[in-house]
Amino acid sequence: MGLSVLIVDDDERERIVLRYILEQIEDVKIIGEANNGLEAVLLTKEKKPELVFLDINMPELSGLEIAQRLNELHNPPLFAFVTIHSHFAVDAFELNALDYIVKPLEPMRIQETIDRAKNRLVHEKLIESRVEEKLKERIDIFVKKLRKEEVFFDKFPIRERGKIILLNQEEIIYAESQGKKVIICTDKQEYSTNYTLNELESRLDRNTFFRVHHAFIVNLNRVREIVAFGEGSYLINLDRSKKQIMLSRARAKVLRKKLGL
Questions:
Q1: Which of 17, 65, 197, 233 has its CA 20 to 30 A from that of 141?
Q2: Residue 167 and residue 122 share a domain
Q3: What digits encode the pLDDT tens for the residues 238-251?
Q4: pTM beyond cutoff 0.85
Q5: What does the angle CA 212 – CA 215 – CA 216 come to, to the nearest 5 degrees?
Q6: How many structural domains does the chain have?
Q7: DSSP E strand stretches across the chain
Q8: CB–CB of 121/27 below 8 Å?
């Protein structure tokens, strides 16, 4: 499919000349013509040409104003000015014009513009393709990492006496820092680990586990009740555990927000 082109000029004779030249160029498809600025903008939105040829002096909107409107579109087309005026060239290129052609029109000069447009589009598509490839690579890496983390989170590894125990997170009632060790308590037993409480907090599901104190992490699904202990502090009572855990005043504010209280 050829390069799609829109011709914008209020002078019908000029449109006929440009159309004739473009029809002689291979791989060019003229998809429309406009004789004023508003029509040019509407046709561009509707037909989405790859290249728009613009006159400068136009009713409704000038060629420069049309170019400004085109630049505001989600996928703006390339545009080249075709005019009898040479003194608007600086303004045109400041609007990121592809080319600036001074009339009378010459077929070789139009051919140069078409070639430039095709090269620009090929370059942009190549860049877009590379960006998509890089984005896909990053997404793939992220998904793989996420999957690994999800598998890792389902089973929590604990080293004990020459073996590795894979503990389901839901089995954990709470974890307590005791000096250089972190004790993980489940319904069945306690495990002494070499994790720090910060490491443990980063590995556990944060939707389920909460740091209630600098020395404790609890499973919120195992919290039975939170009892006021005076001066903004609380005691946490857990299901199937006689352990009472202090909830600090600062962490109580965070927990209330998390629980929607």
A1: 197
A2: no
A3: 888 888 898 888 88
A4: no
A5: 45
A6: 2
A7: 3-8, 28-34, 51-54, 78-83, 99-102, 155-160, 163-168, 172-178, 181-186, 190-193, 209-213, 216-219, 223-230, 233-238, 244-247
A8: no
